[in-house]
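Feature request disguised as a bug: please show the residue count (238) next to Reverse transcriptase zinc-binding domain-containing protein in the output. Example input:
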Amino acid sequence: MPNSGGPRSSRRKLYAHVVDSILLYRAPIWSTAAQKRAYIRQAESAHRRACLRVIGGRPHVSYEATYVLAGIPPLALLADERARLYGRRQEDAKDEERLATLSRWQEAWDRSTKARWTHRLIPNIRVWIERRHGELNYHLTQLLTGHGFFKHHSRRYDHNQSAQCPACPSSIENAEHVFYYCPRFNEERERLHSLLHEVMTPENTTRLMLASEPNWLAVASFAYSVVTRLRDEGTDRR
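Example output, currently without the count:
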């Protein structure tokens, strides 16, 4: 599936669940911890690729951010959950164990040193994954991960390229600068704020997005406009 276009993220998530069902087959009876670790290392890449397809993410998005945005726990946590459920017959066992998984996932998310931009935007995993609306796409994911057509990000792979913003020489062109401060996008930003009836900041972005579907769509449209312009500017510079 392509990152841009194709099925919406909720449909892609169904595909990811099918992949996980295959990867987790017989997980409760893997015989030794050593076997489990070896298998998880091999299976994790397939799990991550499926989650990347859900969010329309670029290849270098971290494992941690990919799973949070997709709303799918890391494979090791899913395997542990399956093992805990094995043999339990209570009707509420599945909900109990999923809450335990979410708690462990949240602790790992808070401790991690990776994907700190995404963590700043989405500090609470449960609030994010239990939302009632909102499809992810290639453009919105660039806002939420910081991986995209930003000079700061591109410089990781082209050390001859400056990371400075062409409109603000004293600023680094990263996701925060581009989406929240750069004057190149003032018109799009002002239009967004008028629709949200509030100035969007990194700290309130997901609160505003989750408040209503029109808000989510407004932020997604803003991300599309900004990312498209960045892509076109990058093409013109070549």
